[in-house]
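ingest -> validate -> predict -> emit
validate: passed (alphabet ok, no gaps, 89 aa)
predict: started
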Amino acid sequence: MLSFLSFVIKWIQPFLIPICFVIAWTTIIMMFLNLWTATKETVKTAKKMHQIPCHNCQFFTNNYRLKCTVHPYIANTEEAIGCKDYQAN
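emit:
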């Protein structure tokens, strides 16, 4: 049994370095792709959140209990992007 295991190890040894090389670079590339995707999604979300006009509206109270006197349930959400009652200060 020990001689068979020794034979298998000697047979696999020349392939270990290329296999580990490919696995290591694949891991690094996947990590950077995940970071790139996460960064793109974060920028996309930030751009969408900057379109919310509530903080410049005259009905916005800046109070955590009642944020907007006209539409309190959609204030500071994505639904408020096209608010029909928006009036600038």
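Residues 1-50 form one domain.
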